[in-house]
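Quick one - inputs below.
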Amino acid sequence: MKKYQLMAPGPTPVPSEVLLAMAQPIIHHRTPQYEALFIEVRAALKKLFQTSAEVVPLACSGTGAMEAAVVNTLSAGDRVVVVRAGKFGDRWLELAKAYGLEVIDLSAPFGQTVDAGRLAEALKSHPEAKAVLVQHSETSTGVLHDVRAYAAATRQHDAILVVDAVSSLGIADLPMDAWGIDLVISGSQKGLMLPPGLGFCALNEKAWRKTKTSTLPKFYFSLADELKYVAKNEVRFTPAVSIMVGLREALRLIEAEGLADVFKRHDRLARATRAGAEALGLELFARATPSPAVTAVVSPKGVDSEKIVAAYSQSHNITIAGGQGEMKGKLFRLGHMGYAAEFDVINALAALEQVLADIGQPVDFGSSVRAAQKIFTEKS
Amino acid sequence: MKKYQLMAPGPTPVPSEVLLAMAQPIIHHRTPQYEALFIEVRAALKKLFQTSAEVVPLACSGTGAMEAAVVNTLSAGDRVVVVRAGKFGDRWLELAKAYGLEVIDLSAPFGQTVDAGRLAEALKSHPEAKAVLVQHSETSTGVLHDVRAYAAATRQHDAILVVDAVSSLGIADLPMDAWGIDLVISGSQKGLMLPPGLGFCALNEKAWRKTKTSTLPKFYFSLADELKYVAKNEVRFTPAVSIMVGLREALRLIEAEGLADVFKRHDRLARATRAGAEALGLELFARATPSPAVTAVVSPKGVDSEKIVAAYSQSHNITIAGGQGEMKGKLFRLGHMGYAAEFDVINALAALEQVLADIGQPVDFGSSVRAAQKIFTEKS
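Output:
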């Protein structure tokens, strides 16, 4: 028997408490029970997003929330800046094109980031830009973009800064109000430790103002309409009830651990994973601030990374992920987000050593585990 | 202790087998396990929709699937016929307006239906119409519209017939191919006995052809893009994994019972509910073919139906629903769909007798139960 372990960069494992809460008989969404649930969730989401703004939940996955951000704040022909250096950055570009937006494309190679200075210049040259679309954590490359600096660069302009925090919410510190981020979107299946199927949009006043002039057509994702219901602790359409029930449990777990400690845990897991990989002589893919959610590792020379992913699964029953898009075959990614703890990383590194040895790479057994333990035993 | 019973017209109870399947550790959606699941689900969905067409699952609730039907087949300024006689019919109208469509509005009062002859005439007068948007079962009124006749009226025209089968799929017979329905949408939380959060769209060839000329903007809901993934047993964006796992179990339950018997069961539950209500001297709201999913009952003279809904909940821990929109306060609705069986109806009727007596209505105790039993003991 091999115990199943999910260490992909999302979806992440769901704690038993949450799974069992969701396995309870389903409740109706127009009842006092659901209202009580929503009141608690509404308040806890604001804390998690570190904002006084409303966080609007939607029955969709993260990409649906990205789409909601676009169709609620923009109009066809609007100019937007897309900051991209990975597959999810590319998704902003595809979305912008699908909705007839004029794109100022600020791209960097996968694994790198876009300097905030480039954004500042682009906005100076294009003061008519209506939005800047970026990721916080780019899941495909394991890079954390400096959205704090992007916010500073955007603040004095008419444009709003829209941050995809799908793989950073509840993982990396992202104080929406303090940093002045106008619109944060996220999903349920990463830091929130839930199954996929819920998206979130949080808009500050500047972003809500943009919804008043936006003419892109919308109905299911209309945030202004949904907000009227949220304000009454109600929901416009049938919500993803079971995941909302799980959300309450997950938010309680985060509250109990403390948000600052949640961030510290992810940082420690990420540093240990990187140290472990480097101890094995492997190269990290991130050429900028690495994400605390996921570590992308370059496959050893001549080794197709899909072989490593397959060996993890077949020999050890551990699900990790390979490279996406142009990075397919070139890197593998270890997720350490959400319901992830120190010994998950120890397992993943021990497995990595065995996988590498199995495909004929020289391995000093225990070396990556030792490097991780050094991080875990640091006095903080 | 009062045992909790959910008898609203959706979401419906979820069988324990399905709840427990969904409570298993979450799997990743780009793995052989998910592919195997999807292969099974894909085939079973075609049987359920009674079609050889692909059924495309989407991470959204039923309204999202309605929107997907509209944005994938139509263009701004297109003329569409909206057939409506209830709150969900109104939703087609709102959707059509949100997307800049020109509406030919065929409405009937709540509780009634629109004769297929009116549709035939409208299409004759407006051969340029691109789509007819209807419900099969109108959840807000408990009426089943004659979509078979609508399909016959639509067939010789350019328009496609789009049927919202959210509260009829797996409840009332709806042979998509045999009746020539072009596009069927549905959701997970009714006949499929699942939590809400999955939508479905099934398009025949005529409907897929419309997607080639449609210019309404779309991304998250782009069915042509999603179809490319479905054909490879893959998914374009992160799916609602846990509900998909539940879907496999639910489809197995439906297969084991047999689709014809599933329809018979719903018909029997509906007839028993209606007979029970009538035995108490109550008036049924449906002035046309009643839906096998839900029975809408007119509140006794002078009684606010919200009082009945509240008494069901407070005195008996049974969740039913009141009237929606203009029918608020005037009717109450008993759902008997999905994971619903004979003794659920017996309970609901026994509770109804007690609720009515509590609010001072004259009640012959046992009379509605007896009427239901007469249906249940019929030789079929």
